[in-house]
Amino acid sequence: MTIPAQILPALDLAAPSWRPILEQGLEAMAAANPGYLPALAVDNYLPTENRLFAAFAQPLGKVRYVLVGEGPYPRAESATGVCFMDGAVGELWCDTGLSKPVNRATSLRNFMKMLLVASSQLQAHDTGGAAMAPIARAARGDGSIQTLAQLQDNLTRHGFLLLNASLVFRSHVPPAVDARAWLPFLQTVLAALAARQSPPTLVLWGKIAEQLKKLPETAALPQIAAEHPYNLSFIQHQGMQELFGPMQLLRAQ
Known about the structure:
The protein is α/β, with parallel strands linked by helices and about 250 residues long. The protein contains ten helices and six strands; from the N terminus they run H-H-H-E-E-E-H-H-H-H-E-H-E-H-E-H.
């Protein structure tokens, strides 16, 4: 299979250890749906700027967790090729709590509140503005991270591969259609991870991501699942608190 020329530059953003696996994944996609990649290559999709495989900047040998979201944000400024990281968000805090961009990014807001509950800074039953304000004021001077880029760096440092179930978003194509087309690619990636001596843990957020449980390639991977973070109930998810709490992701590292 010849990878469409328009897609080749996107492979250059991946770590060299991933390149042959990503090429195998694209070949598996082409075998299952020969017309998909040529059509995608000449279409408008997110993420832009050749960031299709940006998640794979994390070298294969450093992957300890695979966090699987649903798909890219449906806005060019937000879709970065890395799941859950909203490129429109810079600062995390303001004097009254979480910054306005964080509050607009519902999943990020709930994820941060879950981290604060896990570290006993916030009570799960009281996560509103009045409770957040003193935490935010303290965070701006107590060694806490200040930007989303720092949060992504901390996740990367802990070995997270931040992957989406569908690597693209197109406003004129149902997300489930793109997700189906990328399934052979994900199977190839997951098979490579499962073959490692110490397979990483699969962290599945939301119903689309949980469909990966059905794949034979995930049988050898430890798994933990939760509702998608855009649900308020995510803040109180015990499994997520136990997983992420000890990592202290909101602290400068």
